[in-house]
Amino acid sequence: MKQSLKLVSCCAVLAFLSAGPSALSADSPLKLAVIKALQGTATYSHNDDYSEAIPHMILGYDEKGEASIGIAVREIQAYRTLTAMLVVRRKGGAYVVDDVVIPDIDIIRSAKDRRHVEEALRTFGNQTVQDASGKVHRVDTVTQATRHQRRMYLSFNVMAYKIVEEMEGKPDWERRPTPKPANR
Known about the structure:
- This protein is of the alpha+beta class.
- The chain has one domain (2-172).
- The protein contains four helices and seven strands.
- Helix 3 (111-124) packs parallel to helix 4 (147-169).
């Protein structure tokens, strides 16, 4: 049941993105995180049937039409089934993890387990995925990492590499104006 709700939440985000700014009424944490990440881009495109492993891929483009940001959304296993959103931004010639968000982290009841997940998010944030020379980097699991953190790092690495691959591949997905956050 919870997995169905998460998939509905992801689909609602993408339906919102497809509909444009007029669909800003429902404020799910995931949708708000996507809108926040896309700020500073002129247009965006998305593929809501990207792959079995990463069902949702969103790219943001600058004024020149170059992909400047990539967002991947998928479910991961870490104590529970969670929704993860990874944001990779092009900085200079390098690709850097700008943000990692798990909007439904509160379903982890144990404070200790939640701290482990938050620690993994901090560790993966601001990591260089690919430097300006094209050398690929990945976050290795450290010896102190729990098995859940190792699974998260593996998922995040896959998400980051696929984002970079799409940003460099220049897909011909339909582009739309970037939605603006709702005024409060």
